[in-house]
Amino acid sequence: MRVTMRQVAERAGVSAMTVSRVINESLRVSEGARTRVEAAIAELGYVPNRLASGLIRRKTGAIGVIVPDVANPFFTLVVRGAEEVAWRAGYHVILCNTQGDLERERGYLEDMLAFQVEGLLIVPAGDQSRPSLRVLKKNDVPFVIIDRSIAGHDGDLVQGDSVAGARRLIEHLIALGHRHIGMVTETSAVSTARDRLQGYKEALAAARIQFRPELIVEASAIDVGAAHDATVKLLDLLDPPTAIFSVNNIAVVGVAEAARERGLAIPRDLALVCFDDIEHASRFLPFLTVMVQPAETFGTIATQLLLDRLAGQVSERRRIVVLPADFIVRESCGAHVPVDDAAA
Amino acid sequence: MRVTMRQVAERAGVSAMTVSRVINESLRVSEGARTRVEAAIAELGYVPNRLASGLIRRKTGAIGVIVPDVANPFFTLVVRGAEEVAWRAGYHVILCNTQGDLERERGYLEDMLAFQVEGLLIVPAGDQSRPSLRVLKKNDVPFVIIDRSIAGHDGDLVQGDSVAGARRLIEHLIALGHRHIGMVTETSAVSTARDRLQGYKEALAAARIQFRPELIVEASAIDVGAAHDATVKLLDLLDPPTAIFSVNNIAVVGVAEAARERGLAIPRDLALVCFDDIEHASRFLPFLTVMVQPAETFGTIATQLLLDRLAGQVSERRRIVVLPADFIVRESCGAHVPVDDAAA
DNA sequence: CTGTTAGCGCTTTCAA
DNA sequence: TTGAAAGCGCTAACAG
């Protein structure tokens, strides 16, 4: 049986109320009582039941963070940023992993509500996440969407500039002489995929290169294997691309695997660029030419927006924060710059 | 204001009890009542308050997972495995990140207790985590320790065979002709660091190579920068190592950075091996020679052990599971095997 | 400074 | 099949 407040009170020879006051650091407790209560707490290993206190106070001191995949280095950084800010503000972060699965997302969303988190940070699985968010609104739980906008939703949002970023990557490939540029993307139900495809098209249009639909292949973002298979389709074209733009840092692993199987060396036989870095990998071997988004900042700013709402010091208007990405040229695009970024 | 059961009951024209029965899938509810209640729940977007139900039932349907760093690919996989098994068993996973910080670990531990999780999976920060675990015992909360044993603690444990793994890596380096082998490790308060150092020593002894303490440098495991600085010390020795053994996959990034700064090419000028893979990186560019531990299995088995305890179908005896690691030779050790594993 | 009373939202128990 | 009463562990509001 778990230790309860009453047991602590008995042991300390006071009422439950006094124990409660000690725990909540109320000043109105005599030195003697406080000492005895603290001793009893230590001896018994008492941990206050937040279900009970939360029930009354409507405060659990927790915020929920829901992401498709903590294993994705991008989301990992988002989470780290969020946790850092939340912790400093006295909140604890509870993390949920949806695997990009709508049902699981819905489940965890309700879970978080059920546990009475005070607010939520969500990287939605896609546009279809919208109905799930209605539950949050109905229950008056503030939340901030991260990374992916949701068509038709108008809440707070922190995202990158995917259109501009993709355009920049493609312009770079074009400048290097590429004309057949393939793209491995994910479902268009995800806004970043839509936006990056648009950036791709814009860059092509600006260079008067005709858009060829067969150069666009779709794969699930979470799954390296799917990206691999999609890439194989590209490489099997009669007129295969000389460069590939991967929609993100997970898909790019599949692209590289497919290329390696075919004996294609990067960048000699195939140029490769993508969105989002692979944190540890890029430090270990700086190789991929990428648009690096400030993932950690996505997390810190989103948390800040949420904390504002929790503090009630915010208007009803939605706030949208768009963070620019950095273009980092390394080897995989074939531009032959020094390996070490610092040497640039 | 959040939607409550009473509101649903009023709207459906029944008592709260009937709503409760519908939610908990009791069969003793008339068809008509059930339909009306379900309609009311949907209209209102009602989500049952688990703080309240958990308060009574002592069941929250959640298990807590506490790790030093979700960004570490090894722990990420552990978490994924745990979540998969937990989810299938009807449990939800709540994740906490301690950054290897004892205070934070303690805080999250109490948090999890406070939220009344039914059990915990813990990758402890180190031996000093032991006092924190007493709180769990006092409150009768089952838990399983993962990856790192804790001196003096005797609960369920899932870990790798660090001694044998390290010995294998060092034997390999010795076979390649190395005699000056450095090791970048972390605090000996972490059992895996202790064990890997022991494996290192055993391999040296077996080859009758004298152990030189100055070849062992210590760094915080979480921090790439610290590993970098530690490596610099090794490279500054009058008689620097020709090979380095990194205690894990995070430290190895710092080692590589330091080597690159010095203009040392791996493996030409310096051989490099380590424990644990860098998931995406290794698929993208198979380069590091490593002992790969079955991280996901650490998570699934630990969860299984925990679920057993939760089901109460287990004796009081502790259970220890030791999982072997795979030795994967790639390029960084200088053994010149084909890049592609499949080609072996 | 300390204790008592009431009740958070829900489920258990029991009676109808 | 349904509801009323009691209470999970805690704290707000009050009284002393």
Overview of the structural elements:
Two copies of one chain form a homodimer. The first copy, chain A, has 344 residues and is an alpha/beta fold. Chain A has three domains: 5-48, 434 Repressor (Amino-terminal Domain) (Orthogonal Bundle); 60-160 and 295-324, Rossmann fold (3-Layer(aba) Sandwich); 162-293 and 327-342, Response regulator (Rossmann fold, 3-Layer(aba) Sandwich). Chain A is built from 13 helices and twelve strands. The first copy, chain A, has helices spanning 5-12, 16-23, 31-44, 50-57, 73-88, 102-114, 130-138, 162-175, 191-206, 224-235, 251-261, 279-284, 295-310, and strands at 62-67, 92-97, 119-122, 143-146, 157-160, 181-185, 216-218, 243-246, 271-275, 289-292, 320-323, 326-328. In chain A, helix 5 (73-88) links the parallel strand 1 and strand 2. Chain A is elongated and about 85 Å long. Residues 338-344 of chain A have low confidence and may be disordered. At the A-B interface, helix 4, helix 5, strand 2, helix 6 and helix 7 of A face helix 4, helix 5, strand 2, helix 6 and helix 7 of B. Chain A binds a DNA duplex (16 and 16 nucleotides) through helix 2 and helix 4.
- Percent in strands of chain A: 15-25%
CA gyration radius of chain A, whole angstroms = 25 Å
Helix content, binned percent of chain A: 40-55%
Structural class of chain A: alpha/beta
Distance N to C terminus of chain A: 63 Å
Trace the largest sheet of chain A across and list its strands.
2-1-3-4-5-11
Give the biggest beta sheet of chain A: 6 strands, parallel
CATH topology label of the largest domain in chain A: Rossmann fold
- What is the number of helical segments of chain A per DSSP (H or I, 4+ residues)? 13
Number of strands of chain A: 12
Please write the CATH class name of the largest domain in chain A: Alpha Beta
